Amino acid sequence: MANTRYAPAVVFDRTAAPEDSAEPPSSPGGFGSVFTDHMVTVRYRPDEGWHDAKVERFGPTALSPAAAGLHYGQTIFEGLKAYRAPDDRVLLFRPDANAARFQRSARRLAMPELPGELFVQALEELVAADRRWVPSADGGSLYLRPFLVATEPFLGMRPAEEYLFCVIASPVGGVFAGGPDAISVDVAHDYARAAPGGTGSAKCGGNYAAALPALRRAVSEGYDQVVFLDAAQHRYVEELGGMNIFFVFRDGRITTPPLLDTVLAGVTRDSVITLAEEAGHQVAEAPYSVEQWRADAASGQLREVFACGTAATIAGIGRARYLGEEFAIGDGGVGPVTAGLRTRLLDLQYGRAEDVHGWVRVVPRPYR
Length: 368
Description:
The protein has 368 residues and is α+β, with helices and mostly antiparallel strands.
């Protein structure tokens, strides 16, 4: 969709924003289950472009039962976090990269592309309004969920012309119950997350819905997550339901599946590659089969495996199951390479280390 009109420096209407509620909870509870006072909304029509930008009370949004997004899946989203630094600054980590991926997802689903400046501005508006919700506890952060949904009430088979962009926020701790301990994964042999030519590289709701049956089975059988293989041969490792995956070998080499159109280009993934190379590791983006994974784990050539993403940051994988056979990686715990990369990444995100890459963006102080 070509028309993405946008007047730079949009003025957000804050008159609908409520006064602050009671104090934020001391503990965030389950991941993504508690939400802040406010949300940001921006609307789109071809004749008006992006317009009606607001900071308003968090709450239900009116949507026609005939809204195209409910019927044809024109919905995309992003996930990133705001972090509180030791000096009380509030930081965003690489929001420009999330903005660029949001645009790529929109193109894939024939949706209007939100300008990157407006994407970041919307994040800053919400974080500024709800700054006090950014946890100060070690390991806590404010999870930000920008999303775009087709709202035009129309059941014909064509791209919608009306859309709602919204950003909501939730204070969070860790995503896995075991905290920093290694997680376990089940390798799905009978489900595929994405196929060539599909939407696997877009961050759209349908990709995650397709992963849920395999994830539910894995969790019911005692595993934390599920790993998906390629759809054509059911042989090559691609990614987890919501995270990218890395393999660390005895000689220090690291391998991660290549970015085909079936694998999401994770912002954390890209950051990890950079940090690993700076630490002296040779990183290859290359196909890696589940059979080789099992063989390398058995021989000791494979020392560590970890998954990465915004929610979990970096999570070590200690054991895996494939075709009913479970095998351990290394000693089954979190290895030194995984732990070192996690520490380095978190130090950057929380402003505890020098940012030589220009990845960290300081959110302006609240407007009121």
